[in-house]
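Protein modeling request. Please complete all fields; requests missing the sequence field cannot be processed.
Requester role: graduate student
Desired output: 3D structure, token encoding
Chains: 1
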Amino acid sequence: MVPAERSVSPDSWIVVVNWNGAELLPRCLAALERQTRSVQVIVVDNGSSDASAEVVARFAQVVWLPLGKNVGFAAATNAGFRRALAADARWVGTVNTDVELSESWLEALVSVGESRPHVGLLCGLLLFADNPTRVNSTGLALDCLYRARDRDFGTPLAELARPDGPVAGVTGGAALFRAEALRRVGLFDPAYFAYCEDVDLSLRAASAGIGAWYVSTARALHGYGRTFGSDSPWRRYLLARNHMRVIASHLPLWSVLALTPALTFLRAWVKAPLELARGRPAHASAHLRAAGAGALAAIQGLSRRLRGPDVIPPGAEPQECEQASSVREH
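Delivered output (330 residues):
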């Protein structure tokens, strides 16, 4: 394990955000060790209380960056992003602890990125780890309300006919970013905490004329739902709340003003009672809390827009900041 303070400067970096992922880290980091392209891996730890530090210590070249507390996926990723940018990396990736990359994943994405200078975000083909014959994602698809879903979710791999090419957005679970694109549009918005931060960054990049691209040969296995749970109340809450922030940040203002009260009513007076009727009080509570928090998130998103369309969200600045520089060595 490499201390966070040591200077390392390869061309490509990959950020792995961890929170009590000791059981998932060995396979994730072993796959990163096998990459055919040289890469510096940094594990940013969100205050884990398990044996994560001991696991990472077995991987001599991995940088360990403990934050001491859970600041969320977005803010923790940004801490890793900033380390990579400060080391003059040209490509910076994100990989979840429950993702296992194929050996050529990074090389395939960088190769395509180098040949297409207008592309700043890249993703590959994610397959379900429990059933690799089915597709988890070929990137993000967005509907007219900017609700995101994994494109080609559940499609049998044998029937997948998705060509390489442009995609609406990339999923932060396994993605690669051109460093110059991050410097231009900023990093993840930490206000999302987790979920939808990749949607927001994809939309900000698109608004700046920076493309996203899908590469089918960059394959990875995803242990879908192993971190938060695929249908946990906490995940429901974050998705519902953060969708409101995405809407307020990117949809036309007239749509925001119409949708914010409508969706708040829907979650508080329709979805919450339905979950209660199904005998799922925790899910009902998640929708109720998301209704109020989502309305507040929408107001915050609108406030940011009023400051100008090109303003980088607070906490998403590419340069080193106090939070990233004051972490302690573990």
